[in-house]
Specification:
The chain has a single domain, classed as Alpha-Beta Barrel (TIM Barrel). β6, α7 and β7 form a beta-alpha-beta unit. By secondary structure, it is of the alpha/beta class. Helices cover 42% and strands 12% of the residues. The strands form three sheets. An eight-stranded parallel β-sheet has the order 4-11-10-9-8-7-6-5. The model has no long low-confidence stretch (mean pLDDT 93). It has 15 helices and twelve strands.
Length: 377
């Protein structure tokens, strides 16, 4: 079968997919082992990776009946940006491993459906190019580098490119041990680079004899001494809203609010500290601590529309997709990411209707009942 015919067959399969799991299967099939290991890996034994999804199933819905749901409104907003539904794309490195159009395809798909994309510091595409593709619908995720001047330049570039918020990842002073990446010595293929922080030549010079190229490069790149006391420096670099990504406790959520930041509940997709609490498990105490003083977002384990409304019921303004967007990108580029978002949008709409809710403003804790287990009292 020629390449064009093969692509047409795959896109047809993409349109026939009825859920995110089927798109994941399609996406996995189009990745080489290097890329697949990078995308799927969790830290250590993967307990937190699994808990992110499993803990959603422990939350049950309490639907109300005989409600007029002939019209259901899924819209919301994040930091004043209208969204058609409460789902965005989380920052993930190296979209070029999934598809030649890389972050450009993801940005176009998100913008086209009234969503928002968060661009990783470790993108394969320059910030300005993504900003143009995103048409004003992107946030920029920052790793604070040991080279403060380079960090300052990156922040300025993001602002100049139209980023509407700065998402500061706080849970990665070191990379968690992702054993598949270490075992198989993950490295970017020669045709890809990380233009925000490293050229092809720089990455090519990073040794992989002792494990992952990314881990070996990252360990000398990020500022490991940055603390709450340094947030004033970050604030002085930008007028954009600042979101702290990687918050898992009420104590840190309170500090985030005190420092004028919004809160992104995340354990980095289970890729950092294994056996850390799941994102959805951390959300209730964080919502109580924030108490409406800042916006709250969440990523980790989202695979169904019911997951989305559970997160909203517990206090999240919106949720963000990591791996599902990458599976869609691998399965069909921009079309694949769009299909992922479309499926989830319709699942959110149906979940609201079947729960007896006309809009997201009616979704609260009364919709939920929490199941318990010995590990989750």
């Amino acid at each position: 079968m020629n390449t064009t015919a093969s692509t047409e067959v795959h896109l047809e399969a993409l349109q026939q997919a009825v859920n995110l799991a089927e798109i994941e299967t399609l996406g996995r099939a189009r990745l080489d082992q290097n890329a697949l290991d990078y995308y799927v890996s969790g830290a250590n034994d993967g307990h937190t990776l699994r808990a992110n999804r499993e803990d959603f199933a422990r939350i049950r819905l309490r639907p109300r009946m005989l409600v007029d749901v002939s019209r259901v409104d899924t819209s919301t907003s994040v930091l004043g940006l209208p969204l058609g539904f409460p789902v965005g794309v989380a920052p993930s490195a190296f979209h070029g491993l999934a598809h030649p159009d890389a972050e450009l395809a993801t940005a176009r798909a998100a913008a086209g459906l009234g969503s928002v994309m968060t661009l990783s510091t470790f993108s394969n595409t320059p910030i300005a190019d993504v900003g143009q593709a995103a048409a004003g619908r992107f946030w920029f995720q920052l790793y604070l580098l040991g080279d403060r001047e380079l960090s300052r330049e990156i922040i300025a570039r993001a602002g100049d490119s139209g980023a509407r918020a700065l998402v500061f990842t706080v849970d990665a002073p070191y990379l968690g041990r992702r054993e598949a990446n270490e075992r198989h010595r993950f490295a970017l293929p020669p045709h890809l680079s990380a233009p925000n922080v490293a050229s092809r030549e720089t990455l090519a010079g990073v040794e992989t004899d002792t494990g992952s190229q990314l881990t070996n490069y990252f360990q000398n790149l990020v500022d490991k001494s940055f603390t709450w006391n340094d947030l004033d420096w970050l604030r002085a670099q930008t007028e954009l809203p600042i979101i702290l990504k990687g918050i898992l406790t009420a104590e840190d959520a309170e500090l985030a609010v005190q420092h004028g930041c919004h809160v992104w509940v995340s354990n980095h997709g289970g890729r950092q500290l294994d056996t850390a609490i799941s994102a959805i498990g951390a959300l209730p105490e964080i919502a109580d601590a924030v108490a409406g003083r800042a916006e709250i977002y969440l990523d980790g384990g989202i695979s169904r529309g019911t997951d989305v409304i559970k997160a909203v019921a517990l206090g999240a303004r919106a949720v963000f997709l990591g791996r599902p967007a990458l599976w869609g990108l691998a399965a069909g580029g921009e079309d694949g990411v769009r299909r992922v978002l479309e499926l989830l949008r319709e699942e959110v709409r149906l979940a609201l209707a079947l729960s007896g809710k006309q809009n997201l403003g009616q979704v609260g804790p009364d919709l939920l009942r929490m199941e318990t287990s010995p590990l989750h009292p």
